Amino acid sequence: MRVWIIFLLCLAGHAMAAPAVEDAIMEELVTEEPVAEEVEVGANPVQIEIGEFDEAIEVVEEEEEVFTENPCLEHHCKKGKVCEVDESNTPMCVCQDPSSCAPAEGDFEHVCGTDNKTYDSSCHFFATKCALEGTKKGHKLHLDYIGPCKYIETCLDSELSEFPLRMRDWLKNVLVTLFERDEDNNLLTEKQMLRVKKIFENEKRLQAGEHSLDLLAHDFEKNYNMYIFPVHWQFGQLDQHPVDGYLTHTELSPLRAPLIPMEHCTTRFFEECDADKDKYIALEEWANCFGIKEQDVDKDLII
Ligand SMILES: *[C@@H]1O[C@H](CO)[C@@H](O)[C@H](O)[C@H]1NC(C)=O
Ligand SMILES: [Ca+2]
Ligand SMILES: [Ca+2]
């Protein structure tokens, strides 16, 4: 169980921040898991790479011929595909056979698809998805969350309203931690640093820790301005493929996938966040579901 939690947190850490701050983010998240400190993050054998969920990132196939022995060495394929050469020695990406994926070393490598089927690993999942490419079924299939499929409790209305309270507070703390750790200025840009500095130096800031929902709600009301930037920042972190002011299911994955097994309101929260139901979460929708007022939504904050 412990490894599992660390695994999730490493993932969350990867998605949200640079590896150097993973343990800090872990501290933020695992307030009820005191065992976390004993485990060395770097030594965790089950860490997976940042690109693990980037199913939609098509690596542009290279046009020019590369005169190397094996043309596949220079030819990158997206997840679920592998490179093969045809008769004329031209490399191309073809669907990977799931049986060629490395066998999973345990449950913690399993992933659950939106078809509520457990796949041995994300490799197995993406290989399967590739084989369904072009079909309606393949189009609808996404990686839903990390871990074997399980029963996820229904999220009640009252619980749903708690989700943004904790998430906002967490985002603010992640940023403050990044600021504190960022001696070399490479975790945050200069502009971001200035914004977070203001939050960090604000004496009224609610310190990181376990807080009641009442206190979180009260703080949001009183110190509303401190939450505007963290909400924008997280959106910018996710809106990368492409950077267009909209989050696709895949772009949201690094945040959702590790969170769903721990927070049963995750799916419903992000579903309802897409207010116009067009399958994309626009910045305005995102800001709104975190309680940021319309007049404070500012594309320029995403730098
Ligand atoms: C998904 O699968 C799990 C495990 O097999 C099961 O317990 C759960 O009820 C399923 N969920 C849905 C929505 O069918
Ligand atoms: Ca996008
Ligand atoms: Ca939308």
Automatic annotation (TrEMBL):
InterPro entries: EF-hand-dom_pair, EF_Hand_1_Ca_BS, Fol_N, Follistatin/Osteonectin_EGF, Kazal_dom, Kazal_dom_sf, Osteonectin_CS, SPARC/Testican_Ca-bd-dom. PROSITE patterns: EF_HAND_1, KAZAL_2, OSTEONECTIN_2. Residues 1-17 form the signal peptide. It is found in: Secreted, Extracellular space, Extracellular matrix, Basement membrane. Its main location: secreted. Residues 94-151 form the Kazal-like domain. Keywords: Basement membrane, Calcium, Copper, Disulfide bond, Extracellular matrix, Glycoprotein, Metal-binding, Secreted, Signal. It holds the Pfam family SPARC_Ca_bdg. Disulfide bonds join C72-C83, C77-C93, C95-C130, C101-C123, C112-C149, C155-C265, C273-C289. GO terms for molecular function: calcium ion binding; collagen binding; extracellular matrix binding. CDD domains: EFh_SPARC_SPARC, FSL_SPARC. Appears to regulate cell growth through interactions with the extracellular matrix and cytokines. Binds calcium and copper, several types of collagen, albumin, thrombospondin, PDGF and cell membranes. There are two calcium binding sites; an acidic domain that binds 5 to 8 Ca(2+) with a low affinity and an EF-hand loop that binds a Ca(2+) ion with a high affinity. Belongs to the SPARC family. This is SPARC. It comes from Cottoperca gobio.
